[in-house]
Amino acid sequence: MEASLPRSKYEEDVFINNHTSVWGSWWKDHQWGYKCCKQTIRNSYCTGSAGIEATEAAADLMRANITRKEAAEEMPAPVEEKRLATWGTEVPDDLVLDEKKLSESLKKEDERRREEKDERKRKYNVKWNDEVTAEDMEAYRMKRIHHDDPMKDFLN
Q1: Is residue 87 part of a domain?
Q2: What are the Pre-mRNA-splicing factor SLU7 domain coordinates in residue numbering (predicted)?
């Protein structure tokens, strides 16, 4: 009599999609994969040694990009001195302002503050002007309310 081998309800050693190893025969970075092509995607097609080389090349490229980005972040970007003088909180001593333009900017700032109080009067299609001059910034600095100023309540 021939002895029959007990059969399992699970399929064993079934190679799918041209793989030469089974799923779970390889482990890396907390992921299971195929040993033959080192892929961690379950039902992917086997790429063999070409796939291993491509994966390593992609990883090397990723590392090179990361180191290049870190090196670029370490180098400070050049800062324009004129922009700091215009937009900074400290007014430089050598800042020269045109008195005529400054008086016009003060009038525009007063008008802007009046329009700002009642937003219902603002039109739907507002055209913003994002070109700000040094005189406009100085007018804003002069007209703004300083919260640490003890006389701020007397301005209103």
Answers
A1: yes
A2: 3-25
